[in-house]
Structure formats: C-alpha cells, structure tokens
C-alpha cells in the first residue's frame, strides 16, 4: 500500500520544465530566480518559483539546503544565512501547493482532496502527492541549473519545510534518495491514528485548528477503506524505517495544532540520528523564531561539512512518587543548560507560559541532572534545553522531549 506515493511521484509528466528568470548580486553572494513547472495535476499545471542562493565562498558544493515553502518573500534571509554559514547552495521552492484550487487553500484544500479520494478511490486526489512531486522536481531543476549554469555538482539535499510543507519534507525524504538530511518544522503528527486518540483524551475533542478535517469526519473514518489506505500513504510514520538520515525536528511548546507531548507517540520509533529543538513560548510559527532559524542553519552547516553530529541522550527516573529526575548527557561541549517548565490546571498547555532556570553543568557527562516535582493540584510540563556550537563557532540549541507530570497512561 505504501507504493501509491512513489507511483505518483515517479510517473512521467511531459510538462516539467524550468526557465531562468533573473540574477541579483548581493554582498554575500548571488541570488538566482527560476520558474518551474513541476507537473500537471488534475488538469492544472503547477507553477513554482525557485530561489537559488550561492555564497561568495562555495566550500561545500555537493550538498544543498532546500526549503519547501508557499511564499518565498520571507525566506531569503534564511537562505542567505544557511548558504553563508555552510559555504553551500541554499534554495527554496515556492507555491507548494499551488493554491487556491477548488476555492480552497491550505488545510481546507488538503482535506477536500482527501475527501474526494474517499468518495472516488482515485489515487491521484490526495494533495500531498503533488506537493511531494513538486519538491522532487524542484531538486531536479536545482541540480540541472547548478550543473549547467553555476558549474556546481549538487548530489544531496537537506530538505526543510513548515507545517504542511514539513509534512511534505517527511514524505519527500521517504521517496527520494538524494535527501541527505531533513528538518521538518511544526508538524508533530506522525503516527496519526494514535495522535488523534491521544488528542481526544487530553482535550476532550480534536483541536479546533484541524477543523477542516474533522468537519468532513476524516478523523472518524481512518479505520475504513479507503481512508485507511490513505493514512498509510500520507502518514510519515508508515515510512519510519526509511528515515535513517540525520533529522532535526523544529517544534513549538505552544502549538495549538497538537498536544504538548505528541512526540511521545513516535520519537522513540525513529532511527538515529535524530535531534529536536522546541522553541519555548512559540506556537505554529515556531520555525520562524530567531533561535529556530539559527539552529537550522547550524544543522545544515554540520551536514554540509560532514562534521560529526553531537550525541545527546536523556533519561527519566522516578526517585519518589512525587518527583521525576531528568539526566542529560552529551559528547559535545555545551555552554549552558536550562530547565523549562510550564503549569496547567487541565493539561492543556497551549496558552500557558514557560519559564526557565539554569542548571549546573557536569564536567564529566557534559550534561546536567535535576529533579522535577509533581504538583498536587495541577500539571507540570518540562524539558531541558542545551546550548551548543558548531566547530566553526556558530550557535545552536537542542531540546529534550517534553514530559508532563503527573503522566497519563499511554494509549495503545
């Protein structure tokens, strides 16, 4: 069943082409703009912009940063930072998905196409399929342009994206061997069946932010054919054994789409290497915070330069019934470690404020340990955050999973 996505992506499409549009010279390098026609989907040609940033000093030509986005106006600073810091090409594809279509955009459009698939059994309907194909054709065009025009041979990509584009980044990595690393942002929904049940238990209902899907009853029909097949095709969890490349998940502590501890339902099932940065007091725009952008640029630097990735492990123990100890260790040299906590009366942390305190560094483990107390009449969420630097001195931050005390039993 998993093969439907590959079948769609690999199907020949005669409309594929790209055209050179312009070049802008900046103090940091050159920004090229291309137009891409990725495919024809349900009678509509999908048109995209491609932004390709080349730094003045191209030290690592074999790996490129590739951002999947809808609007390219806000991504140039990130492309510049990634290109300069890694000494590598940084590119973005816009218009993923092409929209509006059928009078709908974003989640409303995705949900509509899922519903059309359920009604027709036509495997070309799910919008994630052409979104992934857009990314794959974008990488094709970037390689072709870089080779022909820039004399740069790009072989591998770090693929990033936020929200539905983060969802697309996961699925692109599952079907394209050129993906050397991924950095999906604010998509905390792997293992969808379990996530939906967990959200229902925590909130008493599904998040209102996914109403485009729940209004159509898509969350209720996941066990039925053909929506069961659809879930297998579009849930990155179904492809988890394929994700053996380095992974950086960028999330927010206050994202209204998910529960604060949604990660518990898939993190331990993902192969290593894997890393997490959770922006404190950030919602669905967490990927746009300065800390997240800097961490993403530093992750690309490590990947593009083939630097050893840090080892970060954490363990939780319960010394007493009302306390939990978290111990964090790393083989890197952190400059600071801090504990972040938030409290909630109802286990819904979406609007609660997180605060931090510094922890003492252990020179042996390069980590720290601390006790977290279980409150008597409320819930406490916590995580540990660690400050690190790349070998060239650029900063980045990593986080542990969020834990909630007292904990609910896991839903099977």
From TrEMBL:
Highest taxon of source: Bacteria
Pfam family, one: PhoPQ_related
InterPro entries per UniProt: AB_hydrolase_fold, PhoPQ-act_pathogen-rel_PqaA
Name the record gives this protein: PhoPQ-activated pathogenicity-related protein
């Amino acid at each position: 069943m998993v093969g439907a996505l590959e079948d769609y992506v690999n199907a020949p499409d005669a409309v594929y082409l790209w055209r050179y549009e312009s070049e802008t010279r900046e103090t940091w390098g050159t920004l090229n703009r291309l137009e891409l026609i990725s495919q024809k989907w349900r009678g509509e040609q999908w048109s995209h912009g491609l932004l390709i940033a080349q730094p003045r000093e191209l030290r690592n030509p074999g790996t490129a940063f590739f951002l999947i986005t809808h609007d390219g106006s806000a991504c140039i600073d990130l492309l510049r930072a990634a290109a300069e810091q890694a000494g590598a090409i940084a590119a973005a594809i816009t218009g993923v998905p092409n929209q509006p279509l059928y009078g709908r955009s974003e989640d409303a459009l995705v949900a509509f196409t899922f519903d059309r698939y359920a009604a027709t059994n036509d495997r070309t309907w799910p919008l994630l399929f052409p979104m992934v194909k857009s990314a794959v054709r974008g990488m094709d065009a970037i390689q072709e342009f870089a080779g022909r025009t820039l004399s740069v041979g790009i072989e591998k990509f770090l693929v990033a994206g936020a929200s539905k584009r983060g969802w697309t980044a996961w699925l692109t990595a599952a079907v394209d061997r050129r993906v050397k690393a991924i950095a999906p942002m604010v998509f905390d929904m792997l293992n969808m069946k379990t996530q939906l049940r967990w959200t229902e238990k925590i909130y008493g209902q599904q998040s209102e932010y996914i109403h485009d899907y729940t209004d159509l009853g898509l969350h209720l029909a996941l066990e039925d054919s053909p929506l069961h097949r659809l879930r297998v095709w579009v849930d990155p969890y179904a492809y988890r054994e394929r994700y053996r490349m380095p992974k950086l998940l960028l999330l927010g502590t206050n994202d209204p789409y998910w529960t604060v501890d949604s990660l518990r339902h898939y993190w331990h099932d993902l192969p290593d290497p894997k890393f997490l940065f959770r922006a404190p007091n950030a919602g669905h725009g967490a990927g746009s915070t300065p800390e997240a952008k800097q961490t993403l640029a530093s992750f690309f630097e490590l990947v593009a330069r083939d630097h050893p990735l840090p080892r970060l492990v954490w363990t939780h123990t319960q010394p007493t019934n009302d306390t939990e100890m978290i111990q964090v260790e790393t083989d890197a040299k952190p400059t600071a470690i801090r504990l972040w906590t938030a409290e909630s009366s109802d286990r819904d942390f979406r609007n609660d404020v997180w605060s931090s305190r510094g922890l003492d560094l252990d020179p042996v483990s390069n980590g720290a340990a601390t006790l977290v107390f279980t409150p008597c009449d409320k819930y406490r969420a916590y995580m540990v955050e660690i400050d690190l630097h790349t070998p060239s001195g650029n900063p980045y931050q990593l986080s542990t999973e969020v834990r909630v005390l007292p904990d609910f039993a896991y839903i099977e």
